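Notes, Module 5: Reading structure tokens.

Key idea: the token line is not a picture. It is a compressed description, and you learn to read it the same way you learned to read a sequence, by spotting repeated patterns. We will look at two proteins. The first is printed below with its tokens.
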Amino acid sequence: MMKIKALAIFISFIVVFTFAKIVVAQETEKGETSEQDIEKALKETTDFEQCITKAKKLFPRMHEVRLKNICQRLTKKKVVFGQAVRECIQDLLKKKPNLLRSEAAKKCILEKKVSGNFINAYKLGLQERIEKCESEECREKFQKRLERIENLTQKARERLAKIEERRLQKLKELKKLELKSKIKVLKNFRAREIAKSRLEMARKRYIEARNRFFEANEKFKMSRAEFIAKLKLKKACKDNQSEECKKVREEIFDVSKRHLLKITEVFIHHLAKIKGHIETNEYLTDDEVQEALEKVEKNLQELEEIKQKIENATNKEELREVLLELMNKWKRIKIASEIRAGISVNQRIGGIIIKSKYLEIKLEKILSRMEERGLDTTTISSLTDKFHIHIENARENYEKAVDKFKIARENVSKEALEEAKEFMTKAREELKNADKTLKEIFHTLNVQAKEILQDKTIDEEIEEEISAEETEETTEETEVGEEGEQ
């Protein structure tokens, strides 16, 4: 009897000990089992579905999403494309090694007009994101998105494919507009980035030049009042030969000369002010700034020469001749200044259009995420189309203004300048309407898809796509330059 009792106690001890080991093992699987251990246990598996089945049996307490991430990497489950698309992807990646394979796939699908493949490219993009993730939270997030795609209905997949096709087309349009306007998304929607210290110094110079212009303008007003008063006295002394009238006739030349010098100084300080404005302009490229500054310097030099001629004039005929030269010169400078100011404003409009084009791409990304989750996209899609129409109208008017400003600058044409201003006004109106629509879009998104709207990865993905394109463009330009030097 004692032996039976002892045996029962021993068996109970073994059972408890074994159960404790299982619990510990399960707890280890919950939080402490490393991915290396799991990969080691699954390394012989080559099929994704088999890998998941085996993983669930070996690690029943492990989170399913984590197991799927590991099996994804181990089996390297690939998205399959047709031969034409595959060949296109290979060629494109040779030319643009910085481009993600998923983005290369989308470009090729667009080029080969096989839009049905967009879902595969979309899935590939999510797989690439999973591979790049550094945290478990990140991997789980993209794995869930991948699972949602797998569970979409055929109609939802078709809608998603159309959204992706539109987005790629809009990205293409954005790159074209960037090249034409020379305004870059990655330069904060400007043509160039000026170092903060350099910008502050340039702004300081501009403010100083503006203050000197105001001072010169005040002196000009005083000089003008004196000149007008002398002219009235001269007119009153028309037939008068008194000593006082003789003195007025003698003084009128010196007064006219001083007044003409004050006019010239106002013109010079006006150009110095323009020079300061050009230096701080971030919507012009470095080459455009350099060209504009050279023209201003040339005009300043010519005005200084005219000023010297005024000082050297000894009679009213010489003064009249130099006055005519000054007025002709200023007429051209004034039109050129208006053209330059118009170009500057139009380039700012171009920057807004580039930013709006970027927002269009972002909205298409948001629509994709909404389709993934099975959310109703009808309202947002309709508003996005409306926004697109306004931006396209603004772009067309902006580009027409660019062409007219080019003609105006080359021919110093007032007529072309006025036409450019009309197109610029139309572009502004379209942007105002677009802004109203955009506010409506974001109001609706805040109600329907606030979480998606706040997702920072959307901007990161777009910027990565643009960055890969721009890196490649820079590489190609460098190679062309090196070939030219050889």
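Here is the second protein, with the sequence above and the tokens below, as before.
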Amino acid sequence: MKKIFLSILLIISIGAFSQTWNKLTNFTSENLLDVFCLNKDTVFVAGNNGAAFKSTNGGLNWSNLNLGIPGTTVSAIHFLNDDIGFAVTMAYTTTGGKILKTTNKGSTWSTTIPGTSTTSMYSIVENKNKLIVTSGTDGYIFVSNDTGKTWLPYKKGTSVLRDINFPAKNDTGFIVNQIGNVYRTTNNGQYWDTVNIPSPGSLMSIGLLSEETGCAVGLNGKIHRTNDRGDSWNIITPPSITDLYRVRFYNNTGYIVGNNAALWTSTNTGMSWETVTLNGVSSFLYDIQFCDSVIGYAVGGDGTVIKHELPTSVKENDFSYSIYPNPANTEITIEIKDLRYTGYDLEIYNLSGQELIKAQGIRHKAKVDVSDLPCGIYFIKLITDKTVEVRKIIKE
């Protein structure tokens, strides 16, 4: 337990912080399979029956992007900037999966590569100016070095390549397929070797915290973790047995989504996972992405979109205070400068909403030992009888 040194007695406890995931008003009834954040305001979602939508105000309102492919499932959507974006689709009847491109913010779309009648495209990622798309059934990886003008196909097995992930700006990336194979590249997709996972089951997603550390997840609650670039893997016990569809890491926090509104978080690099309770959400969750250290979205069945954000700060009077040093390594000091406030409560929590420290009855100054906290981003909540303040701190 973290130590707080004060001139008065404090009550310190560990518990659960109030829910920071909120369900947005439905704007479609289609299953949503993918979400992509260009920034905290501009967000894209895509899914069944050609569904593709865009919000430019943080999810308050959504506009329909007409891809011109009714009846086709949009597996993934990805934008390079405000103007240029891509969408990939699954095969539909006799029409093969496609890679679609827009150069005008999603107003119109053209096909950059048509698949065969049995080819479904499943995921797309951009890494170090290279676009990589994974496909299904025939196990192809498509790579573009010129912003989608041309694509080079690479054959990797014969099963559905479900997901691809690179840690930001690194050359090491992984792909998983539906029969439990894992493929690894250490040169940004030029070559892929096969990685062996014991008893993998059907894998649906892979997420990386760094070049060394990541998790692969799949059906029936399968979680596998590596900390040596995939050379060895450990089986992680899940909170429950359910199908898992996506795993991602943001800063030092991991997220998994799956069946029956499953949302799990990890703050110890994927070694253990905890359940997040979602009020008013019962559908499957298929994808999750964070726009920055605070704002995140998860999408799922029946048009479900949930958003992660901080509780709104309420200011009824000026509340002057300082927190230093920030970033911090071993200790932070919180100092209230306005003597009109005779006492306040303090709470510190991580990005997944877990309360780590609670202190009550602080007068004006507190020193908090953060030496045992993992490096990453945390939030301090200061509560008085007239105001609630939330501020971000960084532990180095």
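Summary for the second protein:
- The radius of gyration is 23 Å.
- The first strand starts at residue 4 and ends at 5.
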